[in-house]
Design a protein that fits this description.
- The protein is an all-beta fold and about 140 residues long.
- It is built from no helices and 9 strands.
- The strands form 3 sheets. A 4-stranded antiparallel sheet has the order 6-5-8-9, with no helix packed on it. A 3-stranded antiparallel sheet has the order 3-4-7, with no helix packed on it.
- Strand 5 and strand 6 form a beta hairpin.
- The protein starts with 17 loop residues before the first strand and ends with a strand.
- This is Fibronectin type-III domain-containing protein.
């Protein structure tokens, strides 16, 4: 280790084994120390599991169109989301936001104007991150 290092990870240790680590300092060709600590490595069954898959958005589709509503459905090929947000502009051009629970994979958007084309954007929220959008147009 160089003199500026304050941490080190020791690799390739055996599970469920006790180790003693000795740290020596070297200053002007003199060895100082050691400072020692004992540690027991985790058993194989105690090792940290792999991180869950990062969430990702798949496809967004529109169905069940009526004169004033549309059903939006989407896929999540990996991971999970805390929530979703649907964004679109209403008939007057004002931005609208529709929050959706993270377990949902579809929602009906009500109060739409007949014969109007809408662009819907779906965002996935995971932790403090917003992923997306995936989009679909519907009339």
């Amino acid at each position: 280790m160089d003199g500026d290092s304050r941490t080190v990870t020791v690799l390739n240790l055996t599970p469920s084994r006790q180790y003693r680590f000795n740290l020596y300092g070297i200053s002007v060709r003199k060895r100082l120390g050691p400072v020692s600590t004992d540690a027991v490595t985790a058993s194989v069954s105690q090792e940290v599991e792999e991180e869950p898959a990062q969430p990702s958005l798949g496809e967004l589709s529109a169905s069940d169109l009526t004169s004033n509503s549309v059903r939006l459905s989407w896929t999540v090929p990996a991971g999970s989301f805390d929530s979703f947000t649907i964004q679109y502009k209403d008939a007057e051009g004002r931005p609208q936001t529709l929050p959706v629970d993270g377990a949902s994979r579809s929602v009906t958007v009500p109060n739409l104007a007949p014969s109007r084309r809408y662009k819907f954007n779906l965002y996935g929220i995971s932790g403090h991150k917003r992923l997306g959008p995936i989009s679909v147009d519907a009339s």
